Large-conductance mechanosensitive channel (Candidatus Filomicrobium marinum), 136 residues
Amino acid sequence: MGIIQEFREFAIKGNMIDMAVGIIIGGAFGTIVTSLVNDIIMPPIGLLLGGVDFSDIKIPLKAAEAGSEPVSMNIGLFINNMISFLIVAFAVFMLVKAVNELRKRFEKQQEAAPAAPTATEALLAEIRDELRKKSA
């Protein structure tokens, strides 16, 4: 299964642990991701697009009047926030993926290691072996 397919299943299904991890990671890395998007990722993209500052991209709805602020839809800020969300969601996905891998490995080790025979089983095996010797 490809990483994109796993991410899609994670984003759509998820469970309570995944959600809790997402909230914790989002809170812990929120300011770092915001800085990454605003200060590292968006400036080169804006430069490539002719010096556009994404935070300034707006659709005016109402001009400023005396004593009131202008009303606008801040498309650029929304784009910045969407990129931040995708970075956090991907980081959480990678963390949960790693935890699930560790869980699978642990379960395989538990299955691979046979349990030591109990005292009763050992005694029965000893009796079986003795009976085989007598019948041979």
